[in-house]
Design a protein that fits this description.
The protein is α/β, with parallel strands linked by helices. It has helices spanning 2-21, 37-45, 47-52, 61-66, 82-85, 89-92, 108-118, 133-137, 145-161, 182-187, 190-206, 216-219, 239-257; strands at residues 76-80, 98-102, 126-130, 165-169, 210-213. A five-stranded parallel sheet has the order 2-1-3-4-5, sandwiched between helices. It is globular, with a radius of gyration of 18 Å.
């Protein structure tokens, strides 16, 4: 368990800091550029992933196979990118049957590729999806808001078919109050974050199987940015940030579980 956590922590660190570490290195010839040196080098460094295992199915394949049946428990899968990946659920939600299936750097098209393996096949009652920030940044290429929204809708529809309730988490705000935060902030338009969150809230209101989880309102400051003390790099929550997110997630999960019909039981 300890070695697994160390491995996952190292993976997260590499994903988070790849942009800043390699920002000054030249991008290989033939690689499209975005105007953001850190993002350009990050994308160049991920070519092997994009071509060999786009959804990164290998990441959790063995862990999934080792999971026991969820029979008799309210299993919940937290599904997302680095913000989920670095969230030690066993520490913040002790004793809860919550499973972390976050992968740093991922976008919603990558998550669609692995949704069956990392969510559906684990037979949870609820999936908490936190994504979108890397889509806005363009980690796997430029994406229109409409394309991000379509991916979210596909994830929700797949879950619905399998009697899985969906918690759609708002995209977190970002800030540029520190030197470390400026590159991440420049890639993530606050206006696009607001627009995507508006759509997520509306979609959840129109679909009974979905719950909207509003992290944004609890973490934004008077300027419309992430509160400085909640994210050291302007993007990824620190301990104070996760502490705010915990009760909000718990409330959303409780609400989602309450909508599960009595005749729906956890699969073996």
């Amino acid at each position: 368990m300890k070695s697994s956590r160390i491995f996952h922590s190292l993976t997260f660190v590499l994903a988070v800091f790849a942009q800043s570490v390699f920002a000054q290195q030249p991008v290989p010839p033939g690689i499209p550029t975005t105007g953001f040196p850190g993002l350009d080098q990050y994308r160049a460094s991920r070519i092997a992933v994009f071509t060999d295992d786009y959804g990164q199915l290998a990441r959790y394949r063995e862990a999934n196979a080792a999971l026991k049946s969820p029979k008799g428990e309210n299993r919940v899968v937290f599904f997302g990118d680095s913000i989920t990946d670095s969230w030690h659920l066993d520490e913040y939600f002790p004793g809860k049957p919550y499973i972390n299936r976050g992968i740093g750097g991922q976008t919603t098209p990558q998550m669609l590729v692995r949704f069956r393996q990392d969510v559906i096949d684990l037979h949870p009652k609820v999936v908490v999806i936190l994504a979108g920030t890397n889509d806005i940044a363009g980690n796997t290429g430029p994406m229109r808001l409409e394309d991000i929204e379509d991916d979210y809708a596909s994830l929700a529809e797949l879950a619905q078919i399998h009697d899985i309730r969906v918690v759609l988490s708002s995209v977190l705000p970002v800030h540029n109050y520190t030197d470390r935060s400026k590159d991440f902030f420049a890639q993530r338009s606050p206006e696009k974050i607001l627009a995507l969150n508006k759509w997520l809230k509306s979609y959840a209101a129109e679909h009974a199987e979905c719950i909207y989880l509003d992290y944004f309102s609890a973490m934004v400051d008077e300027k419309g940015l992430m509160k400085k003390d909640l994210a050291d790099d302007g993007l990824h929550p620190n301990a104070a940030g996760y502490k705010i997110m915990v009760p909000l997630a718990e409330a959303a999960i409780k609400k989602a579980l309450a909508t599960v019909p009595d005749n729906v039981t956890t699969k073996n």
